[in-house]
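Regression report. Comparing outputs from two consecutive submissions.

Submission 1:
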Amino acid sequence: MRNETDMLKSLMKLGVELNQVHDLDILMERILERARHFSGADAGSIYIREGDRLKFSYTQNSTLENRLPPGRKLVYTTFSMPVDDSSIAGYVAGSGEFLNIADVYDLPESLPYRFNQEVDSLSDYRTSSMLTLPLITATGGTTGVLQVINAQDHEGRAIPFSSDDEEVMFHFAALAAVALERAQITRAAILRLVQMSAMRDPLETGAHVNRVAGYSITLYEHWARRHGVSEEEIHVNRDVFRMASMLHDVGKIAIPDKILKKPGKLDPEEFEEMKGHTFIGASLFHPFESVYDQVAAEVALCHHERWDGDGYPGCVDMMNGQPLEGQNPTSRNGEDIPIFGRIVALADVFDALSSKRAYKEKWKEEDVLNYIREARGKQFDPELVDIFFEVLDEVRRIQTLYTVAEEKRQ
């Protein structure tokens, strides 16, 4: 890494790698993984700028993660801070300068910014060295802040970041900013589709689809590792699956208002028409020009199938909803339902029961969890239900993350 030619080759390869990731959340995770690799950092965080505030959006910490059971992730709370001189990240976002601090506990009193030691106290961690860089877009704006923490020597002790680290991370931040801006545009486009659905169906909010996507990715990761899926394949699938799961109900855009907005229970004829949102949604992604199109169609078509075969729409042509020749049109069951559809089926129901709707109040968490337990092996894949309860703390973090974000926007 200290050889200039090797560094340039590595950065070029990194640029290609980051631009192959399309989902914003998956990209932030990848950026932090690679930033920590390039700088030898133990931990790191990404802040995304939203107007005059910075949102603490993603974090990693090897020391804290090593204290967890294998395969588990940190549960952390997001928060925001003003873009001003009161914090290190806020100062960097506002000034556009980078900061290389040898020890955040030893900042001169003359500096306007301070390190918030409360975070270390709550997590039982000691932050020492910190390299904080603005993520500057091609137009000169700041889309966020990248922070790497505690450079390490060969024995794992925290040391200051070097001038070489500064140079590498300066170029890294430029590549990351471009990739983040592109992913934000992609996310915005998906959420516009969700907003179009929301004009027809008030239940399809950005918070709902982000929660369903977050739950789905968590379940998929643990299911895939149980089944021996390679890490490379998991990385690819997480990216496309997260975006696809956000559009699971996009077919509702073609369902009449009298059905979508009916406050009471649908009659049998109305329910039959509502079922059409599955194959209508799937047809929007045909012809399949990418893996994303295929996964998105699969999710839209199958997220109302049931493990016991009592779901819908069954084995139908996604272009017209007609039964496929030689197939039972009334039943998909068990592992005949694609795994992405089985996952979103569970994630969607959990979020629907946990949320207030026009026709019902929010259920208590205890009641929601009891429902899922009782539906194990009936409505839901029993293995996925087991995984769901294993990762319930992660599910709750995702739920809080997007619920609080929605409440702040209202």
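Submission 2:
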Amino acid sequence: MEAIRWGIVGSGWIARKLAEALAVLPDAKLMGIGSRKQETADAFGEEFDIPLRFGSYEALVQCPDIDVVYIATPHTSHLVDASLALRAGKAVLCEKPLTVNARETQALISLARAQGLFFMEAMWTRFIPAVVKLREWMAAGVIGEPRFLSANIGWNHPYDEQSRLFSPALAGGALLDIGIYPVSLASMLLGTPSVVSGVMHPTTTGVDMQCSVSLLHPSGALANFVASLRADPPRDAVIVGSEGWIRIHPPLNEPETLSRGTGGTIEETMHLPRLGNGYPHEAIEVMDCLRQGKLESDSMPLNESLTIMQTLDSIRAQWGLRYAADDE
């Protein structure tokens, strides 16, 4: 099978994750890396054996030897960087959260559709085997009608006002950085919520250090989660239905084990290892879609990425937490 040629915009930590992932896929070829500095692109390219190294994002997206571009920059730059790639005629996989707010997400979706190009949010968790099996169990009705979801995620990060996690200028805070995982999970399992409610504990910079959110879905199902940058919770989730429950074992953002049961009884446990660092699965999804001529993923559709961002906007609105992008 002819390899699909990838380029990466950005050369930070998340770019390294995808570079490592593509290296284990024989039908993928990492052709190009784009950075703001030529020396950074050269160093990244040397480490990952990337033949084309560009000192600007513009040069990378214009390269004719690249089929799909991965946007690995901070989410405050996603609108500009993904637009650059789409206008250059490239398919795009854009790191999560897709943008800072729903207005920006809608702009990217509209551009991708106008250009007739594939576009997907890189919610990598959706494509790993344990979460694929979770969807299969839910579709088969193994726990009956879903009634509620409970989840928690977080890490105890040292507080640093200069860190991107706590920077209003970089749209920091627990909700957008890690809270998006349980919001996306609830969306996948229960649909778009009809009522959103939440509280947060702010940092000295004004962004959320930790938050607790409740979602009410049209079916009557509830979702509750906590996202924290100041504590180390178990990072697991439980979805409870009319006929049983499923537990997603930790870590929630990259699980490999599921259990299901009723009451206090575990009836089945499945261990489903990830390929490589887990990121190959989203790359496989992108390449499958491209080979089938699809413009979006059935498992991470664009309209759902938009409604997830609308939910995040609604949560922040209750807190009065605004970023620069909200005023543009």
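Expected: both submissions complete independently.
Actual: both completed, but the second showed a warning that disappeared on reload.
Relevant detail on submission 2: The mean pLDDT is 97.
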